[in-house]
Amino acid sequence: MSCPMEPSGPVPAMFTWEFATDPYPAYGWLRENSPVHWTTLPSGVEAWLVTRYGDARQALADQRLSKNPAHHDERAHAKGKTGIPGERKAELMTHLLNIDPPDHTRLRRLVAKAFTPRTVAEFAPRVQELTDALIDRFAAGGEADLIHEFAFPLPIYAICDLLGVPREDQDDFRDWAGMMIRHGGGPRGGVARSVKKMRGYLLELIHRKREETGEDLISGLIRASDHGEHLSENEAAAMAFILLFAGFETTVNLIGNGMYALLRHPEQRARLAASLAAGETELLDTAVEELLRYDGPVELATWRFATRPLSIGGQDIAAGDPVLVVLASADRDPDRFPDPDVLDLGRRDNQHLGYGHGIHYCLGAPLARLEARTALATLLRRLPDLRLAVDPADLRWRGGLIMRGLRTLPVEFTPAVTDGTSKL
């Protein structure tokens, strides 16, 4: 480890429940006083936190920072303290978040076609169908928990459809994913058990689809493997796993955090509702980008490890040191975003880092944006008087290092009549 610069003044408390509720003041202090900060994480692993926008953008694209945890000099990854709990024991390490070129380039190319704007646009009717069906389940009751009844199941069912998980098996995936969210900030064993169950199911599904392939993503991976791309069975299972894992929780948080921000900013919400009522979509597009910047679903980018000595923001980083880019802090940097703590749904020049930057830019971002646009627009249209059912002080954010999301989002509204035609 390189010697960290001494910050001026006491460092704010981090990784407490109070910090999880509102980490932005602490990140503001770090940007001003210790922009590349050496800290001990709740797991006991030590790492650098990169908090300024310019430094973050540089680090995300710097190929001297490897995604492969084998470069961690303390080998904490071998103890399951970095990365996704249980992925090592389940032999699911060979996915896009843990590898570098050329393997990363090869694997990313195999799945990229599933997330092109054209492919995602073709999936839009199914996302709308799922959105309406989920709202139908609670619209007549006048109250709901928007996390567990809406924001959580929507991306689960969507990514299962894309992967080719049969409808009759999708509720199992919902249960396993729910275990990940419930235990994401606590004991890692619950997550590890779900990861193991997912891997077993995915391997079985891959075997079944080898005999009868379709037009889904897993079938596409199998066909690529059969046509010389040399995709191993473990690579196929790991790829399907990370698309599921990364493809649902980020969208859960985007919808949940985004709706919460709109409920806390009624003038911005009214502005968006009026735009939608007029048949316009431009403000909806910029709104989703602003919600990604303002309180995005990913607080810290996933782990990176220095392969050789380098400097970030004037701070020397030693080979083997872990580096965590704080996206939530970078996207509130006043040197990049005017009035960064203000929610402005029409904000222009909004080159936020909510989905990363460089070769590891989130592959599923087009799908997540589609789901968020559909979810928010449909909620505002169908439940126009939606309001918080609890005091904001009573809400709790899930503990954890990488993701940022609410545990629950209780709301009330005037009961709405449904026609019962929508289906999951």
Describe this structure in words.
- This protein has a 5-stranded mixed beta sheet. Strands 4-10-9 form a 3-stranded antiparallel beta sheet. A two-stranded antiparallel ribbon has the order 6-7.
- It has helices at residues 17-21, 24-33, 53-61, 103-112, 117-138, 147-151, 153-163, 170-183, 188-211, 217-229, 233-264, 266-277, 282-295, 327-330, 365-382, and strands spanning 36-40, 46-50, 65-66, 143-145, 304-306, 310-312, 315-317, 322-325, 387-388, 410-412.
- Strand 1 and strand 2 form a beta hairpin.
- It is an alpha+beta fold and 424 residues long.
- It is built from 15 helices and 10 strands.
- Helix content is 48%, strand content 8%.
- Helix 11 (233-264) crosses helix 13.
- The relative contact order is 0.19.
- The radius of gyration is 21 Å and the shape is globular.
In brief, what are we looking at here?
The protein has about 425 residues and is of the alpha+beta class. It is built from 15 helices and ten strands.
For this entry, give a set of tags.
globular; three-stranded antiparallel beta sheet; 10 strands; 15 helices
Task: Tell me the strand percentage band.
Answer: 5-15%
The parts where pLDDT drops under 50 for at least 5 residues are 76-80, 85-92, 185-189
The count of DSSP E runs of length 2 or more, i.e. the number of strands, is 10
Mean pLDDT: 86
CA-based gyration radius? 21 Å
Please state the overall shape, judged from the principal axes of the Cα atoms: globular
Q: Briefly note the structural class of the backbone.
A: alpha+beta
